[in-house]
Design brief:
Blueprint (H helix, E strand, L loop, with lengths): L3 E6 L17 E2 L2 E2 H12 L5 E5 L4 H10 L7 E4 L4 H9 L7 E6 L7 H14 L1 E7 L4 E5 L2 E5 L5 E10 H7 L11 H7 L6 E3 L10 H14 L1
Parallel strand pairs: 1-4, 1-6, 4-5, 7-11
Antiparallel strand pairs: 2-3, 6-10, 7-10, 8-9
Helix pairs in contact: 1-4
Length: 224
């Protein structure tokens, strides 16, 4: 069995959620959002090595919250860069040897163990495995003053985890950074690799705006 790793990237500032607290540290059902995320990966495998990438300025807050909540899941810390691209690249530097790595947003706290496991199994076969869901609503493309309907069946909403063969994604991140590379899948694709999608979950939301917190609280309560 190939060695598995998790790389959790948490560099949000809480701007769109209208909070002075970085969104990864906002409380969700009694604990920071980020703790829920890390616990999901720990439930998948208690022995899974986890690299956590945070802005250097947030290390003190992290240490304080770990003590306050008696958080015991071991993680390897890495300071992030100015962009997500740089943060992932720096996180990968903390992982040595071959294997598979699941790269996940720190503010997707509702990811399930099933999705994490599926991502590793598929990446072991295809080299890439990207969680995605179908669109529920109609889609239109705008062009200045006109709009036109688009066939939504041809599109997917992309989530994380995005899981890769480690050698593949390390080499992909050696390329020059480009603002159009908005996620790890686009980085791998630009490097010439085909991208394999698998079914994610509508519950696997990203905490971005205030209503996302309300929805996440409701979903967590429903799970209990």
């Amino acid at each position: 069995m190939r060695k598995e790793f998790a790389l959790i990237v948490a560099g949000g500032k809480g701007t769109r959620i209208k909070s002075a607290t970085p969104k990864q540290f906002i409380g969700l059902c009694g604990k920071p959002v980020l703790f829920h995320t890390l616990e999901a990966f720990h439930r998948y495998s208690p022995s899974l090595p986890i690299v956590l990438v945070l802005p250097a300025d947030d290390f003190a807050t992290w240490k304080q919250l770990v003590v306050e909540h008696r958080f015991t899941i071991p993680v390897t810390m890495q300071s992030g860069g100015e962009t997500r691209f740089q943060s992932v690249k720096r996180g990968l530097e903390k992982i040595s040897g071959p294997g598979l790595v699941a790269i996940h947003d720190g503010v997707r706290p509702l990811v399930s163990e099933d999705i994490i496991g599926a991502s590793f199994r598929l990446a072991a076969v295809h080299g890439t495995a990207i969680a995605a869901v179908r669109l529920k609503e109609s889609l239109r493309m705008t062009d200045q003053d006109t709009t036109r309907a688009v066939d939504r069946s041809k599109f997917r909403l992309i989530q994380t985890p995005q899981t890769f063969d480690l050698d593949l994604i390390r080499k992909a991140y050696e390329q020059k950074e480009d603002p159009s590379l908005t996620d790890d899948a686009s980085v791998a694709e630009r490097a010439g690799h085909s991208i394999s999608l698998f079914e994610g979950s509508y519950e696997n939301i990203k905490i971005t705006t205030p209503e996302d917190l309300v929805l996440a609280e409701a979903l967590l309560a429903h799970r209990k």
